[in-house]
Automatic annotation (TrEMBL):
NCBIfam families xrefs: ATP-dependent sacrificial sulfur transferase LarE
Swiss-Prot/TrEMBL keywords: Transferase
Name the record gives this protein: ATP-dependent sacrificial sulfur transferase LarE
UniProt-recorded Gene Ontology molecular function terms: transferase activity
Origin superkingdom: Bacteria
PANTHER family: EXSB FAMILY PROTEIN, NAD_GMP SYNTHASE DOMAIN-CONTAINING PROTEIN
Stored SUPFAM superfamilies: Adenine nucleotide alpha hydrolases-like
Native organism: Pendulispora albinea
């Protein structure tokens, strides 16, 4: 993944002078010890790096591993935790065995996060830690995110929200701490590539993971492979449509690679491979929910 070499400028350019970082360090110090739910994305990586800086071995990053975690994201998370120097544990997650999750209603994320926080609560006790924290920031509160309710139910600390961090503050802080992922593109679990109401299966997740991995290896940075059924959503036979989203600036590059991309899609079991001309946009998975009454939990 290509990352910009120049971090954002700020009137508080040092770790010692940044007010958000000072508040975060102080809060983490008060917490004493913490398990960080760590995916390898910029938000959770920033929390883990800050916690490790303040708490040392009393901060542990936990990554829940399941078929919905992209394989390249898992490998990147392991590498980044090693670079941070923090203790990092991979724990198998079982949400794929939960029918409430696999039926893929609009509350799917709630069931996924409930499993994550169930695991983290157990491991917090096993590892003799005081708190569980996630990487939620203030900008996350405005989207439809059922997982926020799961965090509230499990009494998980959203330390970035508590300290007033928005996404731009997270990226600036991550750059100040020397994290190479300070401007990493947003990511999401592979199940978010499957339309609501279409069953989540291991096979479909493997198709998506395989093709997204191929696209990243071709040098495309912000990628989503949206899985669409040709017929019945309950038909598990091969033959789905891959609708590929890339950043608008990468559309021409993707079109130039179309033959290679189609071949990769066929190898991954897709019958048709398409390119979404609107390009990647945040929240496109939720576009079908427009006009429905949604309760956003803050």
């Amino acid at each position: 993944m290509a990352l910009s070499p120049t971090p954002p400028q700020s009137e508080h350019p040092t770790v010692e002078n940044d007010p958000h970082l000072k508040r975060l360090f102080s809060l983490l110090s008060e917490m004493g010890s913490v398990l960080v739910c760590y995916s390898g994305g910029v938000d959770s990586a920033f929390v883990l790096a800050a916690a490790h800086r303040v708490l040392g071995p009393r901060a542990v990053g936990m990554t829940a591993v399941s078929p919905s975690l992209p394989s390249f994201e898992r490998d990147a998370a392991v590498d980044l935790a090693r670079r941070i120097g923090a203790r990092h544990e991979l724990v198998e997650s079982g949400e794929i065995e939960d029918a409430n999750y696999t039926k893929n209603d609009v509350d799917r994320c709630f069931h996924c996060k409930s499993e994550l926080y169930r695991l983290s609560a157990k491991k917090k006790v096993d590892w003799s830690l005081d708190w569980v924290a996630n990487g939620t920031n203030l900008d996350d509160l405005g989207d439809y995110r059922p997982g926020l309710e799961a965090a509230k139910n499990a009494e998980v600390r959203s330390v970035l929200v508590e300290c007033g961090f928005r996404k731009e503050d997270v990226r600036r802080g991550a750059a100040l701490l020397g994290l190479p992922v300070w401007n990493k593109p947003a990511s999401a679990c592979l199940s978010s590539r499957i339309p609501y109401g279409t069953e989540v299966t291991r096979e479909r997740l493997a198709q998506i993971d395989g093709l997204e991995g191929e696209l990243h290896r071709l040098g495309l940075e912000q990628v989503r492979v949206r899985w669409h059924a040709l017929g019945s959503t309950r038909d598990t036979a091969p033959g789905a449509i891959a609708r590929i989203e890339v950043e608008a600036r990468e559309l021409m590059r993707a079109f130039e690679l179309r033959d290679t991309i189609v071949e990769a899609g066929k190898r991954c079991g897709f019958r048709y491979v398409t390119l979404d001309l609107q390009g990647y946009r945040t929240g496109s998975h939720n576009e079908v929910l427009v006009g429905r009454s949604l309760r956003v939990v803050s």
